[in-house]
Amino acid sequence: MTVFGYARVSSKDQNLDTQIDQLKRYGVEKIVSEKITGVAKQKPKLEDLLGNLKKGDTLVVARMDRLGRSTMQLLELVEELNERNIHLVILSPNIDTRDEIWGKLFLTIMSAVAEMERSLIKEKQRNGIAIAKEKGKYKGRVKKYHSKHAGMKHALDLYHSQNYTVKEITEITSVSRSALYRALNEENEKRELTQGGI
């Protein structure tokens, strides 16, 4: 169980020192930093860090907006970390998902907001599908990748080869980061059950 820190600034002329100093004072063991805008869909070093995090690890950031500027980016990441049993600490405003009371409250609020966001997106999708059907342009729902899908198998093979970053894998296979992490979690759970049964 390792404590990782992530620091980010939006441009090359900005300084990372303040964030790094805060992370060191907290006691972070390993710090990853990069200079890239918060609205960027891909943050290479953050992607690599997320791919290396294991169950029980802790991710620490100075502020919430260091992980992403858009609400959806942040919500998806928080949910993903929670599903993978990875702790999140945000130094300002002092949020720690390991805390039984405040951590759970934070996750509950984030989940509620995420559910509302998803409902709004689904409503827009339904409206879009209805319009497409009226125009005769609806081709049906695109099937998502699952653990037994050939694309997912390829993504897992590339991940285990340790020759590709998560970003490169998603670009090569078109498997989403969250879908890949879910499949990796399933593998880990099966491995733990197998080892426990020996």
Description:
The chain has seven helices and five strands, in the order E-H-E-H-E-H-E-E-H-H-H-H. Strand 3, helix 3 and strand 4 form a beta-alpha-beta unit. The chain has 198 residues and is an alpha/beta fold. The model has no long low-confidence stretch (mean pLDDT 78). It is globular, with a radius of gyration of 19 Å. It has helices spanning 17-26, 44-52, 71-83, 102-134, 150-161, 166-173, 177-196, and strands at residues 3-9, 30-35, 58-63, 87-92, 95-96. Helix 3 (71-83) packs across helix 4 (102-134). It has a five-stranded mixed sheet with strand order 2-1-3-4-5, sandwiched between helices. The active site is at 10 (o-(5'-phospho-dna)-serine intermediate). Residues 2-136 form the Resolvase/invertase-type recombinase catalytic domain. This is Recombinase family protein.
